[in-house]
Amino acid sequence: MGSGFSSIEDYVKNHLRLFIFSVLALLVILAIAAVTVFFIAVHGEEQTMVPDLVGKELTEALIEMQIKELYPRIDLRYTQTSRDKGFILEQDPPPGQIVKAGRRIRLVVSQGVIVNRVENFVTRNIDDVRMDMMTLLTAAGGVPLLSIREPVMYEFSAERPGTILAQRPEPGTSISGPLSMDFVVSRGRDNQTITVPQFAGLSISSALYLISETGVNFRFTQRERRDGERGETVVSQSQPEGSVISLNTPILLTVTAPEDITDSNVFGVFTYTIPENPYPLTVRLEALHPIGGRERLITVNFTGGEFTVPYKLPSGTVLILTMMNRELFRETI
Q1: Which end of the chain has fewer surrounding CB within 10 Å, N or C?
Q2: Phi and psi at residue 330, in whole multiples of 5°?
Q3: What domains are defined for the chain?
C-alpha cells in the first residue's frame, strides 16, 4: 500500500514538472517571437521619395539626401562652361520616385569646362572673371592655366564699371600652357554727376539708408549737441541740397552725439582707409553684438579713401568691414 501511493505521487510530480517546463518553454518561444517581430518592425526598410536634385550645388543635394536617408554615387563630367562647376547635371532614379531608404542615387556632377581655348570674356565683370579663374584647372606644378596680368588697364566708357571692354589673347586662342590675360576694363562714365539729396535733419540710420540708395561719396564727423538740437541727427552737410556735383565729390555730414548714453553703450565714428579702386566696389559694415546677432549698418558702393560710419552700439560689439565679401578689418568697441 505504501509503495503504490509512492508510485502515484511520483507520477503526479513527474507530470507536473513536465507541464511547468512546457509552459515555460512556450513563454520563452512567445517572448522570442515578440522580440523578433518588434525588431523586424523597427528595422524594416522604410520608403521615401527621391527629391529633385538637378541644378543644385552638390553640398545642398547631399544635405537633402541625408534627410531622406539616401546615399550618393557620384559621377563627374566636364561641361561647356565653368559656371556650372559643382552643380548636379543628372540624377537616377528621377525625382518623385518612391524607393527604399538606404538606396544609392546616381548623381552626375559638373567638373567644369576642359580649358583648351581662351573664352570670350568681353562684356563680363572683371571680378566675376577673377573668381572663375581661381577655380580653373591648373598646369603642372599648380600654376593656373589662365591668370590676369596686373595692373589691369581702365578707361572711361558708357559700360557699367568693371565691365571688360577688350581682351588679349583673342577668344578662341589655343591654350598649350599657363597664359596671362590682358584686359581693358570700364571705369564708368567720365565726370558722372549726382544731385545732392537732403541729409540735414535726418537721423543717422536714415542718412545711412539714403547713402546706400544714392551711392553718394560721404564723410562723417561728430560733435556735441547744442541748444535745441536733437541727438544722433545730421545737423549740416557740406554740399547744399539740390546742387549738382561730381559723383566722386565727398559730402561732409556732421552728426550730433546722443542725448543720453549709458555705460553699456558706445557712440563713435568708425574710420578705416580703403585703398583707392578704379571704380566703386561693394563695401559693407556689420556689427556683431556681444550677446549674439549680426546687424548690418551700411552697404554701399565705395571707390576708396576714408570710410567713416557713426554708430551707437553696446560695449564689446565687434565691427566687421568687408569689401566684395572679403574681410578688410575688424575691431571691438
Answers
A1: N
A2: -145, 150
A3: 47-113 (3.30.10.20), 126-186 (no CATH), 193-332 (3.30.10.20)
Q: Are 229 and 257 in contact (CB under 8 A)?
A: no
Tell me the β-bridge partners of 267.
Answer: 312
Give the position of cell 545732392.
196
Q: What is the DSSP string of 261-296?
A: --TTEEEEEEEEEEPP-SS-EEEEEEEE-TTS-EEE
Rounded CA separation 180/228 (Å): 62
Positive or negative, the CA dihedral 272, 274, 275, 276 is: negative
Q: What are the Cα distances from residue 232, in Å, to 89, 200, 278, 331?
A: 53, 12, 33, 22
Q: How far apart are CA 297 and CA 309, in angstroms?
A: 8
